[in-house]
Design goal:
Layout: E1 5-11, E2 15-22, E3 27-34, H1 50-70, E4 75-82, E5 85-86, E6 91-94, E7 104-105, H2 106-113, E8 119-123, H3 124-135, E9 144-149, E10 153-159, E11 162-163, H4 195-198, H5 200-212, H6 217-222, H7 232-240, H8 244-268, E12 272-276, H9 280-285, H10 287-297, E13 308-311, H11 318-329
Parallel strand pairs: 1-4, 4-8, 9-12, 12-13
Antiparallel strand pairs: 1-2, 2-3, 5-6, 6-7, 9-10, 10-11
Helix pairs in contact: 3-11, 5-8, 7-8, 8-10
Length: about 350
């Protein structure tokens, strides 16, 4: 039987990563281009404008064409992992960090640009989850949760051997679970969302509070002497060198992460919880604290089998590999990877 090759593209905040992937998960080719019009986190974008719409489609078409030209195997389909609420028809209904993205019919427009090539679009964190389920840390289990930790928090859910997308395709927006109604404001417009405490931006906030309280002298030095300039990466750098105060702040981050994980475990009863994204190394530094806090917070822990908390294995390629698998699967509500 001929080898089947699909293209997966992960649309990130600053770059698009495209991979040509065969049916065994082997990456045959890779292309990167900047994400058009990146503007960082902020208020939700308005309806797609014509210029922003075309820039996004142009970039996706460019990645696809370059990948097709780089291999000598027929490409059967294209999958795209997009940030935001992607509905079951491949339309990006809400995209706070992708200018021109809200309301963008990525699947239909890109397929048209590619001469009718089958195109499937899904949420980027869901795609990363599928990648880890197929070839990474969640391989071989039927119930799993993935948490992607970056500037914010994304997620993906596997239940009973199915990818969970919900009635509209929007399941997995776990970063916006409210865990403290009186907590800090979130770009989504509410207060106290989980990602305000357990993400990269949350780590930065926790660190600046500690710095202003005089508890992070080494970290403030790394930030140039200004407490307000402290970012999460400064804390990670100091913790790597064994700075006790930095490790305390990372322990706070770990507790907030464990709180959200325990809530998800209560609702979904997964066998494995995978964490990935830009904070993967940071969380790994305090993984023992995360696990200890998780065990304390999880109701009935001593009566339950262990819920494994594992680092992602595919790195930055997880989303693109997962997008390729989703495109290949045909049925958006089930991806058979066993």
């Amino acid at each position: 039987m001929a080898r089947q090759v699909t293209i997966g593209i992960d649309v990130g905040g600053t770059k698009m990563l495209g991979l040509a992937v065969d049916d065994e998960g082997v990456v045959l080719s890779e292309v990167r281009v900047p994400t058009p019009g990146h503007r960082g986190t902020g208020p939700a974008a308005g309806p797609a404008d014509a210029a922003g719409f075309e820039l996004v489609i142009d970039a996706l078409a460019t990645v696809t064409k370059q990948l097709r030209a780089s291999i000598d195997v027929e490409v059967s389909s294209v999958g795209v992992g997009a940030p935001g609420l992607v509905d079951n028809t491949g339309v990006l209904r809400y995209a706070p960090n992708l200018p021109g993205g809200t309301g963008l019919d990525i699947a239909g427009r890109l397929s048209e640009r590619l001469g009718g090539l089958r195109t499937v679009v899904d949420n980027d964190a869901t795609c990363a989850t599928v990648g880890e389920w197929a070839f990474g840390a969640a391989a071989g289990v039927s119930d799993a949760v993935m948490v992607t930790l970056g500037t914010g928090i994304g997620g993906g859910l596997i239940a009973g051997g199915h990818v969970v997308r919900g009635a509209s395709g929007f399941a997995g927006e776990i970063g916006h679970m409210v865990i403290d109604p009186t907590g800090p404001p979130c770009p989504c417009g509410r207060r106290g969302c989980w990602e305000r405490f357990a993400s990269g931006s949350g780590l930065g906030r926790l660190a600046r509070e500690a710095a202003h309280a005089g508890r992070l002298d080494e970290v403030v030095s790394l930030a140039g002497g200004d407490a307000e300039s402290v970012r999460g990466e400064h804390v990670t750098m100091a913790a790597r060198e064994g700075d006790p105060a930095a490790l305390v702040v990372l322990g706070e981050l770990g507790w907030w992460l464990a709180l959200g994980l325990s809530n998800l475990a209560l609702a979904l009863d997964p066998a494995v919880m995978v964490y990935g994204g830009g904070l993967l190394e940071t969380v790994t530094l305090v993984l023992d604290k995360v696990r200890a806090a998780f065990d304390e917070l999880l109701e009935g822990r001593i009566y339950r089998p262990e819920v494994k908390i594992l680092p992602a294995q595919l790195g930055e390629r997880a989303g693109a590999i997962g997008a390729a698998l989703v495109a290949r699967a045909g049925d958006r509500y089930r991806v058979d990877v066993a």
